[in-house]
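Anyone up for a design puzzle?
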């Protein structure tokens, strides 16, 4: 099972990376991040953030996350498959 972390509100890219790396044992095969600040006020700006630790079982060569739709207006991290 993969590791997933995230927050909405005050935080930073560094906080997201620390949260995600705390669950490294859930997915030792890779990591990915999405960080979208709402404003740029200080190091703890308001943001939406997603982190992912990957455990490669199916689609070992692909499956890098976060995943985006075609125009990058939607982002997702998940454990499992999208069919």
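Challenge accepted. My sequence:
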């Amino acid at each position: 099972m993969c590791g997933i972390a995230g927050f909405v509100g005050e935080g930073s890219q560094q906080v997201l990376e620390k949260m995600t790396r705390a669950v490294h044992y859930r997915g030792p095969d890779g990591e990915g991040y999405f960080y979208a600040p709402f404003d740029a006020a200080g190091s703890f700006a308001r943001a939406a953030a997603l982190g992912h630790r990957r455990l490669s079982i199916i689609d070992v060569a692909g499956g890098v996350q976060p995943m985006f739709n075609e125009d990058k207006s939607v982002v997702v991290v998940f454990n499992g498959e999208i069919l």
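A detail worth pointing out: The radius of gyration is 13 Å.
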